């Protein structure tokens, strides 16, 4: 065989490409279960973080099963529903938010109930849009389903030092103690620029230089929490 012929070079290259592609495809398929498990563990960690429970990958499952005593699935009208084969934990808030083919009736909203010696807390997952891409998070409420007791936000593409700061404690801690109702009226929590009266129970000081991402967090919260309002009002111990 003449290895200097173009036909040999092209044939060898084609075989090499096929072999490499096959190996990469096999590796990707083999790693899928591990990747799915990592996503599941990270989700449990984020849910627990919103209520102040720091979990490691090794104990996240145990702590989640210990403290999350109930999971509900709500319709877009805030009513508890059951979908056969669909668990509240299975809902990917980011994928659902990005899927423009879903009708409002095909969108479902999870609610996780946390309980420890201090009482119950209710955790709401949410997703929205920052400056460069999706943002998401979990917001936890006290038993009155009005007062925020914790939150966690995250992203993949926001600008370091600016919009990316939504995941830092100095920002998420500002939400603690804020309320989403004014009397019986839902007002959510507004993200405002520095210098404004953000000491209001319904306002949080935004990130300097990260205005668009901050506004995205506020929009995400208002749009998502509006769905939960009927459930909150019907079950809350507070006088909403």
Give average pLDDT, whole number. Answer: 89
How far apart are the first and last residues' alpha carbons, in Å? 85 Å
Count of discrete alpha- or pi-helical segments spanning 4 or more residues: 5
Number of domains: 1
Helix/strand order, N-terminal first:
HHEEHEEEEHEEEEH
Biggest sheet layout: 6 strands, antiparallel
Write a structural description:
The protein has 240 residues and is an alpha+beta fold. The protein has one domain. It contains 5 helices and 10 strands; from the N terminus they run ααββαββββαββββα. A 6-stranded antiparallel sheet has the order 2-1-3-4-5-6, sandwiched between helices. A two-stranded antiparallel sheet has the order 7-8. The radius of gyration is 23 Å and the shape is globular. The termini are far apart. 30% of the residues are buried.
List the helices and strands and how they pair.
Layout: H1 6-49, H2 60-67, E1 68-74, E2 80-81, H3 93-98, E3 109-116, E4 119-129, E5 134-141, E6 148-155, H4 169-172, E7 181-182, E8 185-186, E9 190-192, E10 203-205, H5 211-235
Parallel strand pairs: 9-10
Antiparallel strand pairs: 1-2, 1-3, 3-4, 4-5, 5-6, 7-8
Helix pairs in contact: 1-2
Summarize this entry quickly.
The chain has 240 residues and is of the alpha+beta class.
Notable traits:
240 residues, alpha+beta, 6-stranded antiparallel β-sheet, two-stranded antiparallel sheet, globular
């Amino acid at each position: 065989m003449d290895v200097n012929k173009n036909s040999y070079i092209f044939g060898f290259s084609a075989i090499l490409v096929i072999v490499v592609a096959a190996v990469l495809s096999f590796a990707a398929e083999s790693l899928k279960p591990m990747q799915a498990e990592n996503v599941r563990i990270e989700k449990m960690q984020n849910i627990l973080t919103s209520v102040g429970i720091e979990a490691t990958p090794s104990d996240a499952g145990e702590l989640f099963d210990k403290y999350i005593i109930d999971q509900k699935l709500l319709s877009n009208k805030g009513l508890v529903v059951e979908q056969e084969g669909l668990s509240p934990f299975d809902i990917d808030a980011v994928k659902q938010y990005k899927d423009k083919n879903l009708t409002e009736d095909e969108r479902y909203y999870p609610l996780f109930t946390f309980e420890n010696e201090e009482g119950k807390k209710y955790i709401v997952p949410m997703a929205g849009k920052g400056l460069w891409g999706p943002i998401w998070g979990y917001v936890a409420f006290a038993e009155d389903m009005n007062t925020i007791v914790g939150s966690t936000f995250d992203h993949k593409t926001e600008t370091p030092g600016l919009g990316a700061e939504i995941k830092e404690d100095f920002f998420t801690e500002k939400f603690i103690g804020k309320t989403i109702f004014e009397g019986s009226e839902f007002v959510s929590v507004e993200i405002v620029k520095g210098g404004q009266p953000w000491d209001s129970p319904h306002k949080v000081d935004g990130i300097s230089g990260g205005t668009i991402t901050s506004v995205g967090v506020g929009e995400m919260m208002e749009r998502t929490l509006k769905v939960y309002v009927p459930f909150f009002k019907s079950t809350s111990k507070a006088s909403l």
